[in-house]
Amino acid sequence: MTKVLMVCLGNICRSPLAEGILQSKINTDTIFVDSAGTAAYHVGNLPDERSIAVAQKYGIDITNQRARKFTSKDFDEFDFIYAMDESNYQNIVSLARNSEDEKKVHLILNESQPNQNLSVPDPYYGGKDGFENVYQMLDEACTVIASKL
Description:
Number of domains: 1
Helix content: 40-55%
Shape: globular
CATH superfamily: Response regulator
Number of helices: 7
């Protein structure tokens, strides 16, 4: 089974959306998708209500997710680790134990916009439109990821 991990800061906005979007595009019998945050601010919490709402708008239910913190053990569990932005990318890579761990980590928007190293903006303080914009960015990237898996 191929395992994919989506990572943002708190695991309540971007990465839960990415998890739900990718799950909606793949065969969950052969591909496992999860999400985590590099910080422990919201461990155990549901995704942000605005992430839940925008996902529901597109027929995706992410209410079964709970925030958790990324750990170095995730390198053992996952084949692909997608960071939402450069800061979280650096936080993840700082926990890598070797080059094999580092090779698993990618900026998610490089899937839809190769080699541009763009960040998915954190919509937490960006109002409702921020969540819609993030959804669209992640949907495009996850379409590419799903086609590769």
